[in-house]
């Protein structure tokens, strides 16, 4: 009890943040990787690289303690619990480094209520646990700089364990390593390094789970890990390597602009001066920790600014920077208050400051973080399954719906009569497990062959989630609700298909305009209505639907591109150009858009401009 009384700010930060997360928790499956992470955790599978074994093991144990609850809610709640532990641990760490308990509490809650972090801990995601690991790693790092062998071995173990939480935590190690080399070099003697490597390896032991569990049970398995090389590729995230350090200078500047905008509003604009003040004051107050935080932030920036992905998802790659800003905020508030107290000695000043920091950030982000009534993703998956007749085959891909559908079938048992395949091989592959050890080119050919066999068999209807060029001739895709049915080109479409518009109730829920992922799902409803209308010959209404979809998901490069494509196909060249340009504003490094814009210019007779656009598309396609 004495320890809890001494560091009550940590308990309070944990309890308050957990309460806020529970009240804003997403009640079911969410978008992107949520469905596969729930399936891999609840049923002990192996999720996307880098595998997150400790999250899976601890999440499953957490779920066992809460029997009878919806699996998605349990794993979402586990994510929130990890996030609240990160907030509480941060508060204790700040207090140990000299901050007043009220300031430590307010700043830790400010981090807990920051826009990106809050958005990630109310859904099934690994970032709550990852930031807990980041705080512990920084804590262990400064203890090792100031301590001896015991602290060094603790650091080595936590570093090994941290890399099983999220590989981005490796960015903390360069700064800590330099500090140890500078101030405590005796820890780098040969025998100490050997002991440290042993403890690091011990921390890495959860990764054995990936080898031992891969391919077993009914959980979601991203891919095969039957060899040490495949395990290493999975653990090291080799799938994502081409996305790093592939941007030209202009792309890095665009990411830097996004980072500045994110940092401006991540806490609250009114707190930005305190952040800047803390960046200066922290060096004088806590030099070792200041260097560790700054080095981590710089490493984070170097990597994140050189990373190319969907702009709506890049914010999470700045989480280490956001954590660093929390330290700056704490130092800034503490320094100014201490100056104030020297002359005025206001007893309630620290409590007021802590409440103000936490309250400002909470008030700014509560509405956008609140997902406690957000059923959009689950309803979208359910509506897709409702479009399918008995015994259908559905070929899915991407993150918008494929993992939602996987979750609904794997964990809720919906529509077991439907056979779901992921064209990219994620979770539900067209290939058998033993075929996943073939080289990528052979796997690709086999998938094409299997897909062709599905299209040409006559026993079961085949559907695609998204329109694309089919792998066999003589067939076409016909819109049917939220999906496309494969149909022989030579046969007329049954008349009753023309009435199969998607049910639009889910698309018209107005409460989620702040959430780009949900707006993308809602735009899919509207876009598919356009596809049904165009198949009926109602071009005017169809084009209006495409425009509505683009306006709804205005920051989605995919929706903008698809709308541009529809405008091009219907010879609306000016609108096709405008939508293509809008897609490039979201992501200027999307080669398919330049190819589409070249087709627009070609139809307009502006061949020279078209050639330049094609050159740019070709150059981008060749770059990693």
Please provide a written account of the structure.
This protein is mainly alpha-helical and about 625 residues long. It folds into 3 domains: about 1-365, no CATH class; about 375-500, no CATH class; about 510-620, Tetratricopeptide repeat domain (Serine Threonine Protein Phosphatase 5, Tetratricopeptide repeat), CATH 1.25.40.10. Helix content is about 60%, strand content about 5%. Helix 20 (about 400-410) links the parallel strand 1 (about 395) and strand 2. Helix 3 crosses helix 4 (about 55-65). It is globular.
Summarize this structure as a short list of keywords or feature phrases.
624 residues, mainly alpha, Serine Threonine Protein Phosphatase 5, Tetratricopeptide repeat, 3 domains, five-stranded mixed sheet
What does the secondary structure layout of this molecule look like, with pairings?
Elements: H1 2-6, H2 8-23, H3 34-42, H4 53-64, H5 71-96, H6 101-112, H7 115-121, H8 127-146, H9 149-165, H10 173-183, H11 190-203, H12 208-213, H13 228-236, H14 249-266, H15 272-285, H16 287-305, H17 319-343, H18 349-369, H19 376-386, E1 393-396, H20 402-410, E2 419-422, H21 440-456, E3 462-464, E4 475-480, E5 483-488, H22 516-536, H23 539-552, H24 557-569, H25 573-586, H26 591-603, H27 607-622
Helix pairs in contact: 2-5, 2-6, 3-4, 3-5, 3-20, 4-5, 5-6, 5-7, 5-8, 6-17, 6-18, 8-9, 8-10, 8-16, 9-11, 10-16, 15-16, 15-17, 16-17, 19-20, 22-23, 23-24, 24-25, 24-26, 25-26, 26-27
């Amino acid at each position: 009890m004495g320890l809890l009384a001494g560091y009550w700010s940590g308990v309070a930060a944990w309890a308050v943040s957990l309460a806020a997360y529970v009240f804003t928790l997403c009640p079911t499956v969410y978008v992107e990787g949520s469905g596969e992470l729930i399936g891999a955790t609840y049923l002990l599978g192996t999720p996307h690289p880098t595998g997150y074994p400790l999250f899976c093991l601890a999440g499953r144990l957490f779920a066992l303690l809460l029997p009878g609850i919806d699996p998605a809610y349990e794993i979402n709640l586990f994510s929130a619990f990890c996030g609240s532990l990160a907030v509480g641990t941060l508060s204790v760490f700040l207090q140990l480094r000299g901050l007043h308990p009220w300031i430590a509490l307010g700043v830790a809650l400010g981090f807990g209520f920051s826009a990106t972090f809050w958005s990630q801990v109310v859904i099934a995601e690994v970032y709550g646990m990852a930031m807990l690991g980041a705080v512990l790693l920084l804590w262990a790092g400064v203890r090792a700089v100031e301590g001896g062998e015991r602290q060094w071995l603790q650091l080595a173990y936590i570093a090994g364990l941290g890399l099983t939480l999220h590989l981005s935590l490796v960015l903390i190690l360069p700064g800590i390593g330099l500090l140890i080399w500078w101030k405590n070099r005796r820890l780098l003697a040969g025998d100490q390094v050997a002991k440290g490597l042993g403890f690091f390896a011990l921390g890495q032991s959860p990764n054995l789970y990936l080898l031992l569990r891969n391919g077993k049970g009914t959980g979601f398995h991203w891919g095969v890990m039957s060899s040490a090389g495949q395990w290493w590729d999975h653990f090291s995230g080799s799938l994502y390597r081409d996305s790093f350090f592939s941007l030209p200078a202009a792309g890095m500047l665009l990411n830097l602009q996004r980072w500045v905008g994110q940092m401006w509003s991540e806490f609250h604009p009114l707190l930005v001066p305190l952040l800047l003040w803390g960046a200066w004051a922290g060096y004088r107050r806590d030099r070792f920790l200041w260097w560790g935080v700054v080095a981590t932030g710089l490493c984070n920036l170097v990597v994140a600014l050189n990373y190319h992905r969907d702009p709506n998802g890049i914010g999470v790659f700045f989480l280490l920077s956001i954590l660093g800003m929390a330290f700056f905020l704490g130092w800034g508030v503490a320094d100014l208050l201490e100056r104030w107290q020297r002359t005025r000695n206001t007893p309630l000043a620290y409590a007021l400051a802590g409440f103000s920091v936490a309250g400002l950030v909470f008030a700014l982000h509560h509405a956008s973080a609140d997902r406690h009534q957000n059923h959009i993703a689950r309803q979208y998956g359910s509506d897709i399954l409702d479009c399918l007749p008995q015994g259908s085959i559905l070929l899915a891909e991407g993150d918008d719906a494929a993992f939602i559908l996987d979750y609904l079938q794997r964990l809720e048992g919906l529509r077991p009569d439907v056979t779901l395949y992921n064209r990219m091989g994620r979770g539900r592959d067209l290939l058998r497990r033993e075929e996943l050890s073939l080289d990528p080119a052979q796997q690709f050919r086999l998938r094409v062959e299997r897909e062709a066999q599905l299209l040409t068999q006559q026993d079961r209807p085949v559907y695609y989630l998204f329109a694309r060029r089919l792998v066999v001739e003589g067939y076409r895709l016909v819109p049917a609700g939220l999906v496309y049915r494969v149909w022989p080109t030579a046969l007329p479409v049954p008349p009753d298909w023309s009435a199969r518009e998607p049910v639009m109730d889910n698309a018209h829920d107005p409460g989620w305009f702040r959430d780009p992922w949900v707006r993308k799902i809602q735009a899919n409803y509207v876009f598919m209505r356009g596809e049904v209308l165009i198949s009926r010959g109602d071009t005017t209404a169809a084009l209006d639907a495409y425009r509505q979809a683009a306006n709804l998901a205005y920051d989605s490069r995919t929706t903008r591109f698809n709308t541009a494509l529809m405008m091009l196909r219907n010879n609306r060249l000016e609108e096709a150009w405008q939508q293509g340009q809008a897609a490039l504003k979201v992501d200027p490094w999307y080669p398919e858009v330049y190819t589409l814009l070249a087709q627009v210019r070609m139809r307009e007779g502006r061949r020279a401009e078209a050639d330049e656009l094609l050159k740019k598309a070709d150059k981008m396609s060749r770059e990693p």
